[in-house]
Design a protein that fits this description.
It contains 3 helices and no strands. It has helices at residues 2-20, 29-56, 61-83. The radius of gyration is 15 Å and the shape is elongated.
Length: 89
């Protein structure tokens, strides 16, 4: 699970950095890709949190920190997607 998290964060960072490049600033794909990836990460985090709470009955503080970071990334990517010029059609 830790390897999945590291790879996921690396992928999110790569897309975010790619979206900051001058060639991609006026394109919609970085916002859409980041929103989709962070949405998937949010669902996976919710699944892992449910396992912690209802199956193993233990809370990992690093998992809580990771969950907060994923929620923040999702919120920021949603705001960026809504702000992008052609996000509503």
């Amino acid at each position: 699970v830790a390897l999945i998290g590291v790879l996921g964060y690396a992928l999110l960072l790569g897309v975010a950095v790619g979206g900051l490049q001058p060639a991609a600033r006026d394109r919609r794909w970085p916002a859409v890709t980041l929103l989709a990836l962070s949405g998937g990460a949010l669902l996976f985090t919710a699944y892992l949190t449910a396992l912690e709470l209802f199956v193993i009955h233990a809370i990992c503080r690093w998992c809580v920190v990771s969950a907060v970071i994923v929620v923040a990334i999702f919120g920021l990517s949603l705001a960026d997607w809504r702000r992008s010029p052609s996000s509503h059609g």
